[in-house]
Fold this protein.
Amino acid sequence: MSYLLKVTTIRYVDSQGKRVSKGTPGSQAVKGKSRKWYGRFKDPNGKDKQVPLFTDKTASQAKLNEIVRNVERRSAGLYDPYEEHHKKSVNDHLADYEAFMIAKGITEKHVNQTLSRIRKLIEGCQINLLMDIDATKVAVWLSDRRMTSKRFSAQTSNFYLDGLKYFCNWLVTHDRMQKNPVSKLNRVNIEIDQRHTRRSLSEDEFQRLISAAEDGSSVENVNGPDRAIIYLFAAWTGFRRRELASMTLRSIDLTGTPPVLKVDAAYSKRRREDSIPLHPYVVGKFRYWLKTQPDLKADSKLFPLTTPKGYLRDTAKMMKKDLESARKLWLDESSIEAERTQRESSDFLKYENSKGEFADFHANRHTFITNLSKAGISLAVAQKLARHSDPRLTANRYTHLDIDEKASAIETLPSPKMTEHSLDQNEIQKTNPKSLVAPMVALTPVALRHGETVLDNITVPKPSEPQMQKPLSEQGFSKISLELSADGKIRPEGFEPPTLGSEDRCSIQLSHGRYIIKRIFKVKKDQNSIL
């Protein structure tokens, strides 16, 4: 049985009847009835429960009836524990989600950006209640945006989907939904739809960029030398624009071993204090630049990357202007028309190259990580220096290698030890065996003089005239030379190494060749050299 009641309350007043806290000198207790109505009912376990309701009796009775109905439905196994949350607007849940993220210490920028994306998505999908969240609607809306908007790339689409997924996971964790309705939606492959990909700068490009910036005029109210030192720090530390904008003199410790650059947790993307060692070249350049800043205070912003109102400057515009200046100087270096035409058709120092890759300010971070790879730094160390949580991000998105660098890497691989079955016989005849066998053997210097081959004091004599009935050119051979094979024996160049178990003969394709060799050289058993 359920019913409404008003409970007895006790309040304390002073001599003038004003309410005071308990224990106040001269106060006295006064009994009364509560302003709110309370509902009394039995829970599913049969225990008495009492809950506060409203000051209006009619509203309180309606609410109590709803509570009792839910208790009875739960006892009968018909109660939906999520029913109350399903009746609330999705925007009400978003307001609670916002409060939750702020309480966790997430930055205001990230909170606003995430909520903005979610609100745009639910508005586009016409989602009013939680039960309206449908995976198909979301997938179709994201696909339409990618097709119709140039600024809505696959990466942006993934950000929108991630935001909605995190929101739905929060609803499930806090018992507002039974399951995440968009958990099975997959992210789009960003490799097939990149709208603003970045590239790294070569060493020559970067040096010319720095020179052009140092001699350039002011861009975005930042003079040339200041832009040059900003580019230098960005490309040698990998710090992002916002992180560099937060730097002060206290952020740099030049007295330590090694000198380091630090960024506070409030400005780091990872929300933790980060530091990175500084290269001696950067330290020297910075010391020289610091002499031109006599009015710089310890707590002043080190680099002029923010406006007086606190907005970040357009660093992409700076890079574009300086790259254009550097490219113009590079083109003017050529006085030959053909060479200049060739340079004009190249991507060297272009802000956007023929592949649609940009060299904006964030490209300096790509340059930093790519240079780590070129220097042979392991992926694990590069990941730490890049301050990435996932090494795949370091390797796949931020490391750029051109075809020449890939070719150089392939050339460093050791050549395989070849056998007679390693290649087709026809292919062996087309290939220079020295490039296949010789690199794997520690060769002793071979001296060819007067037709003799000397190897470890073993001399293969020049064949006498009677042994040669016809010139080699007349027998189909233009030249015969000798080569040290993997088994340490001398073989005629152009033939396979010996087959296993046949040390006294050469395995060749044509028996005619074996016949010729035997006619040219004879076996010297006392010198243990078999040809």
